[in-house]
Amino acid sequence: MNYTYILLTILCTVYAQLVIRWQMKSAGVLPPGFTSKIAFVFFQFLNPWILSVCFASTLAIISWMAAMTKFEISYAYPFLSLSFVFVLLFSSLILGESLNIYKIVGTILVTLGVMVTFKG
């Protein structure tokens, strides 16, 4: 059950990043001018998908707090790097974003780093 908290944190974080990217692609570019930028961002909070991101982010925080009662931060925190791996994978598969050899090699290195930390 202890690792469930870390996994839930990762899943909520990945969900939030993918949904924000998806919704911001459809929202268009950030307008010029400070007031217009504030209005643009405020308007995004009326979007149910963005509200779901707020919920997922809150759940990630709560889950991380629970994980911190079970693990040392120096042990648990590297697992959050797996968020990067999943965001890269799903942004390519779902959102059609680019994937190249440098991103793949970097992702492998991150994963190996997490595995080394897990053994430690």
Automatic annotation (TrEMBL):
The UniProt record lists the EamA domain at: 47-118
Q: What is its main location?
A: membrane
Q: Which InterPro entries match?
A: EamA_dom, EmrE-like, Small_drug/metabolite_transptr
- Is Membrane among the key words of this record? yes
For molecular function, the Gene Ontology terms on record are: transmembrane transporter activity
What residue ranges are annotated as transmembrane? Answer: 40-63, 75-95, 101-118
Q: Which SUPFAM superfamilies match?
A: Multidrug resistance efflux transporter EmrE
Name of the protein in question: 4-amino-4-deoxy-L-arabinose-phosphoundecaprenol flippase subunit ArnF
Which lineage? Answer: Bacteria, Pseudomonadati, Pseudomonadota, Gammaproteobacteria, Legionellales
